[in-house]
Design a protein that fits this description.
This protein has a single domain, classed as Vaccinia Virus protein VP39 (Rossmann fold, 3-Layer(aba) Sandwich), CATH 3.40.50.150. The N and C termini lie far apart (38 Å). It has helices at 3-7, 18-35, 54-61, 71-80, 92-96, 117-130, 149-163, 166-177, 180-187, 195-204; strands at 41-46, 62-67, 87-90, 103-109, 131-142, 207-211, 223-229. α6 (117-130) links the parallel β4 (103-109) and β5. Strands 3-2-1-4-5-7-6 form a 7-stranded mixed β-sheet, with helices on both faces. The protein is built from 10 helices and 7 strands. The longest helix is centred in the first third of the chain and has 18 residues, at 18-35. Keywords: Methyltransferase, Transferase.
């Protein structure tokens, strides 16, 4: 099993219950909308997952394209947003068919850690082609070298206490301890990037980058970077 196969399953326990999932997507949407350029704009959410707040984000942006690498997630998004005038769910062929310079902003949240550096650099070229000159790339939830699992646990428990699902979070952590996620994290690991590496990668692929004041989402031990397509 690799990370793509893991996320293609419907039995992973990343979200401990429905409230956790709801609050996670709401927090992400709030943070994202504060960072986006003024609408109207065409936003591509790359690695969107189930996109619970897609309609609210689309209402703000004007147009939203959703892409996730997991085929089962792609299929679910296409069913949910079939016929929507403002939201387009993309499969791999749809993504490849997007016109150069057709996207104003791209969000990539909590994705880079599941990819190799070579894969990330290849994606930067794809995003550079898709973005309009001056378009914005937002890389969120980037893990810095030396980050420890304990930090993620502490952050989750703080979010759970604030959101009223602490007992479920404790139960979910116990499930995760025996899960494929933990085994994959130990076997394959997660990719990490320090600020200078991210800046060098962005510059090498035609972007000017900066570190955002805070990370998108509840885990402030991770980092969000904002880049402009040159």
């Amino acid at each position: 099993m690799d990370w793509r196969l893991f996320w293609d399953r419907d039995d992973h326990s990343i979200y401990v219950n429905a409230r956790h999932k709801q609050l996670h997507f709401a927090r992400v949407a709030n943070d994202l909308l504060a960072l986006l350029p003024d609408p109207p704009l065409h936003l591509l959410d790359y690695g969107c997952g189930e996109a619970y707040e897609a309609r609210r984000i689309a209402a703000h942006c004007g147009r939203l394209s959703l892409y996730d690498a997991a085929p089962s997630v792609q299929a679910g998004l296409k069913r949910r947003f079939a016929g929507s005038a403002s939201i387009q769910a993309l499969d791999d062929a749809d993504l490849a068919g997007l016109a150069p310079g057709s996207i104003d902003a791209i969000l990539c949240l909590s994705v880079l850690q599941y990819m190799s550096r070579e894969e990330c650099e290849a994606l930067l070229d794809v995003w550079h082609r898709l973005l309009t000159p001056g378009g914005q790339l937002i890389l969120g939830d980037v893990i810095a070298p030396g980050a420890h699992t304990v930090t993620d646990i502490t952050s989750l428990l703080g979010f759970a206490r604030e959101g009223g699902f602490l007992v479920a979070a404790l139960r979910g952590l116990a499930v995760t301890f025996f899960s494929d996620y933990r085994r994959l994290r130990q076997k394959i690991g997660l990719s990490t990037y320090d600020e200078s590496t991210i800046m060098d990668m962005l510059a090498a692929h035609g972007f000017a980058g900066r570190r955002a004041p805070r990370n998108i989402g509840h885990n402030q031990a991770r980092v969000t970077y904002i880049a402009t397509r040159l």
